[in-house]
Design brief:
Distance between the termini: 16 Å
Structural class: alpha+beta
Radius of gyration: 24 Å
Oligomer: single chain
Shape: globular
Number of strands: 20
Length: 500
């Protein structure tokens, strides 16, 4: 086999996380020599997805890994067979695909359009994100679970709202969809908290203010969510509903979410001539001059030294002053939790994901946790677990109480929905810290977001432009817009797994 050092590479990409994998996809028709490496033995980086056995290995790796890495304090729990009392337990390892970053993709996201124009959408299967729920024991101890009203139909059918509340909520929903053209309503409040804005401008109740704040998917208390940050995210949610069909406004890729997109993107990169090497990270790099040209000389952890014109993802991370840290709990339960996925919207597809939001004044506060908890409930339709089971991805801001708050949130939700019938089979707890790179194009919070952040795609496009531009800085190529490869049709994949 030819040594990697025998080739003068145009681009070396380090890391197969979602952003760098999308860059590999964007460069797959560029005719450039691409070397794509990853220090891990798996694809996906912070968005990776694992079987149960692979989770065991990952937990062991995180426990002894470099503390500068984004994950820490990982721990596993598995139900004892006797405690299940006859309830079917876990299936075989590869019956599960548990993702570290269970992000939803809004229908309005540019990512979906780029996956179509780049032709890789044929290798992806998307599932609908349906109902959004709020769980709040403080307001209603006996019926704590209720749907979030996010459309005219939801508002009219919500028996818990009086006419005055419905009018106020509809006024806000109409405003936020067109907020950019109503600057006089919000520009003087841009830096104010969302809680104060919703109260003073729309007279919404505490419960409705919390419901609206939940649509931002922010980990912060509504008092601390800036209006200028919140409005575009609420509008994103509302305007995405109905784009691909009635009753839903977001999707998730089947078989592991963002990890599946990373795999497909890397496969396209390999079909385009890229070379992939797992288990080879960057130890160090320096600039050298060869034939009058500046090159990056990169020393890989597998002992090889390569030279490349461009190095992407090799920048070292530096510590943020106040990094955001989230706590995550992945739970496998012995129930399909059918009631969470049922839709009252005519013609809507059966959802594979439902979102449950537990506000800061719900269960969490009883455990000293002042931040909301989000639980992404994935059915077996996502391909992440066997039939008649579900995977619950719970996330909240990290505090000393966050682990117990997440555990109690899942326990209370199961107890209410299943009346004690659904059993917890498995749970993985870990923490993830926001990291900033010396590369300013990389959004540090992107992988912490619960919805795909289009800023990441913009960063990929900026990197792509700088790589494909000629010496004058000009390129006539179009970002991620490809023609079908010769001899391929709509039923063909971009390629097989060879080289990936």
């Amino acid at each position: 086999m030819e040594s990697l050092s025998d080739t003068k590479w145009d681009v070396l990409i380090s890391g197969t996380g979602l952003q760098n994998s999308l860059l590999a996809l964007a460069l797959s028709r560029s005719n450039k020599k691409i070397l794509h490496v990853d220090e891990n033995e798996y694809y996906g980086g912070a968005e990776a997805a694992f079987s149960l056995q692979e989770v065991d290995e990952w937990v062991e790796k995180v426990s002894g890994d470099d503390p500068s890495k984004p994950f820490r304090n990982a721990s596993l729990w598995k139900a004892d067979a006797e405690a299940l009392n006859g309830t079917p337990g876990l299936s075989f390892s590869r019956a599960y695909t548990l993702t570290l970053a269970p992000q939803i993709i809004y229908s309005k996201s540019k990512l979906l359009a780029q996956l179509v124009s780049s032709k890789v959408y044929r290798q992806l299967e998307f599932q609908a994100v349906g109902n959004w729920w709020m769980y709040d024991e403080d307001t209603n101890e006996f019926e704590p679970l209720r749907k979030l009203p996010t459309s005219r139909e939801d508002v009219s059918q919500d028996k818990g709202l009086d006419n005055r509340a419905k009018r106020s909520l509809m006024k806000f929903l109409k405003f936020v969809i067109d907020y950019e053209n109503q600057a006089e309503t919000w520009e003087s409040h841009t830096d104010a908290g969302l809680e104060e804005f919703l109260s003073s401008q729309f007279k919404l109740s505490v419960n409705l203010r919390s419901a609206i704040a939940a649509l931002t998917l922010s980990f912060e208390d509504p008092h601390n969510i800036p209006v200028k940050w919140a409005l575009p995210r609420i509008a994103r949610h509302l305007t995405s509903i109905g784009v691909f069909g009635p009753g839903f406004g977001a999707v998730v890729p089947k078989w592991g979410g963002g990890a599946e997109i990373s795999q497909v993107a890397c496969r396209a990169g390999a079909v385009g001539g890229g070379v992939y090497v797992l288990g080879a990270g960057i130890k160090q790099s320096e600039m050298v001059t060869e034939d009058g040209k500046q090159l990056n000389q990169v020393h890989l952890s597998n002992g090889e030294t390569v030279k490349t014109r461009r190095l992407v993802g090799g920048a070292s991370h530096h510590e943020l002053t106040n990094p955001k840290v989230v706590s995550k709990l992945i739970s496998v339960v012995s129930s399909p939790l059918t009631s969470l996925f049922e839709s009252s919207i005519e013609g809507s597809p059966l959802a594979a994901v439902s979102v449950v939001v537990i506000t800061s004044f719900g269960i969490a506060k009883h455990r000293g946790q002042p931040y909301p908890i989000y639980i992404m409930v994935h059915s077996s339709e996502t391909g992440e677990c066997p039939a008649n089971q579900c995977v619950l991805y719970a996330t909240t801001m990290h505090t000393k109480y966050s682990k117990s708050a997440l555990e109690e949130a899942v326990s209370h939700l199961l107890k209410y929905i299943e009346k004690g019938e659904g059993k917890l089979l498995y749970s993985l707890y870990y923490e993830q810290e926001q990291q900033a790179s010396t590369d300013p194009t990389i959004p540090p919070t992107a992988s912490l977001d619960l919805a795909f952040n289009d800023e990441m795609l913009q960063a990929v496009e900026d990197q792509w432009k700088s790589i494909v531009a000629d010496d004058t800085g000009v390129s006539d190529a179009t970002f991620m817009k490809f023609e079908d490869r010769e001899g391929m049709n709509d039923d063909d994949d971009e390629g097989d797994d060879e080289g990936v």
